[in-house]
Amino acid sequence: MGDQEEQQPTLEERSVLDLLQKINKLHAEISKLQSLSPSEKVNGLFTELVTTCIPPSTIDTTKLTKADNSMRSDLINLCGKAEELLERHYSTLLSEKENPLDHLNLFPYYSNYLKLSQLEHTILTTRFPHTAHSAALKVAFIGSGPLPLSSVVLAKHHMQSSVIHNYDVDPLANSLAMRLTSSDGDLSQRMVFHTCNVMDVTSQLKDYDVVFLATLVGMGKDEKVLIIEHLANYMAPLAVLMVRSATGARGFLYPVVDPNDLQDHGFELISAFHPTDEVINSVLIGRKKLSEKQEVCCHSQVIGNTDEVINSVFNGRKKLSEKQEVCCHSQVIGNTDEVINSVLMGKKLSEKQEVCCHSQVIGNTDEVINSVFNGRKKLPEKQEVCCHSQVIGNGSANIYGEV
């Protein structure tokens, strides 16, 4: 019997091979360009590349041949450089207008930013309901660039009381971004720009409730993992990390972030969303994990029964005197149930209801803590207690509806 006929590729495999062939052809043409600055030819090639990569595809960028993987890495770098030059061009163009932010629709991909920011904000407020009611979230955007459309859209349409801190390593990018936003009386007060490498940002990171990580910050997998690990080391426990990524053939346009890279480096993966329309970027949502000593203060699911814990902490009192302030995170004075509900809902307290982990507590602070924790050195999951002297940073900024 003769040799078996070579097995023919399936329809799906043929589709992937055809796609790779077309992407390789476009990469070759783009590589020959003398400049990546906006021009009819440059714009045409990158538009064709985007159109090629956007449709849903079964291609797995982790299983490429060595040659295709090398091509992909180079293509992502070329896309990043072209995107930066395109943003510089439009940031300069818009800044020359009397009211620059009234003309953002001149940027060819502005509608994508509107949709992506809407998507991110919807995911954020759905997964963390308290963020929808917070008067002013503390937000950082890492990799804001010369045309900080994401920050602008978030600030103008979704986070209208928040100050957004924008980080970029390029001083020219920040200079152009500040020029663009300086003409807007509101945004000029709520958009702060920092010129530095994110790996040099340490203690400041603990101040933010939400951190956005732009797609092009950390081009290779190893670099991206180092950045995620750095953020995990310095962000506040329970703070949210929104990571932009890509999937399928879109991974030839932007770096792909493996969800495991969040889970293995200090974050709990809350959700992952992969658009199938013209919005290119996927969104991964992570939450900073708690260390053994950072079990959450003020949670409805505590050791045993909530009422039992409240009664033990408050010593059975329904109303506390001024000198009977209790170490149970955020205040006391008033009705116990109202206080606890306010704390658990993340509501702002009045001046007369302030006193979390105060030195003047019922009895001695250590005794109260010991009685509540009942000698436990570590709490199992879902048994976090509302009465700890070492709370998580600001507390009120870190009390999330989900734990």
Report what the structure shows.
The protein is α/β, with parallel strands linked by helices and 403 residues long. It has two domains: 9-289, 3-Layer(aba) Sandwich (Rossmann fold); 292-403, no CATH class. It has twelve helices and seven strands. A seven-stranded mixed beta sheet has the order 3-2-1-4-5-7-6. α1 runs antiparallel to α2 (40-53) and α1 packs across α3. The model is unreliable at 294-310, 312-337 and 349-403 (pLDDT under 50).
Alpha carbon gyration radius: 25 Å
How would you name the CATH homologous superfamily of the largest domain? Vaccinia Virus protein VP39
Termini separation: 65 Å
DSSP summary, beta strand count: 7
Largest sheet: 7 strands, mixed
> For the residues shown, what is the average pLDDT?
79
| CATH fold node name of the largest domain | Rossmann fold
* Overall geometry: globular
- Quote the beta fraction: 5-15%
**CATH architecture classification name of the largest domain:** 3-Layer(aba) Sandwich
Low-confidence stretches: 294-310, 312-337, 349-403
Structural class computed from helices and strand pairing: alpha/beta
Helix content: 25-40%
CATH top level label of the largest domain: Alpha Beta
Task: Write down the secondary-structure element order.
Answer: HHHHEHEHHEEHEHEEHHH
Give, in spatial order, the strands making up the sheet with the most strands.
3-2-1-4-5-7-6
Total number of helices:
12
Number of domains: 2
